[in-house]
Amino acid sequence: MWKHLDNQLYRESKFADFSQAFAFMTRVAMLAESANHHPTWKNTFNKVEIWLTTHDAESSVTDKDIALSEAINKLV
């Protein structure tokens, strides 16, 4: 699921189509907003890529990133 790359957590998810990918992104956005911790991400058709890092902690992985990644795991 998540890979630790360059002081970030990274995940790629693929869906049946763009609509499902976008719905997933909407659910992630709601989680991120409630946690006040926002991902860097990219969407290409049915693929969503997410990078999590805490900029306030010198761009390293913190408990905030781990908590958000675990919440995102429950959506897929």
Automatic annotation (TrEMBL):
GO-annotated molecular function: 4-alpha-hydroxytetrahydrobiopterin dehydratase activity
EC numbers on record: 4.2.1.96
UniProt keyword annotation of Lyase present: yes
Keywords: Lyase
Coiled coil: none
Catalytically driven reaction(s): (4aS,6R)-4a-hydroxy-L-erythro-5,6,7,8-tetrahydrobiopterin = (6R)-L-erythro-6,7-dihydrobiopterin + H2O
UniProt similarity note: Belongs to the pterin-4-alpha-carbinolamine dehydratase family.
Name the record gives this protein: 4a-hydroxytetrahydrobiopterin dehydratase
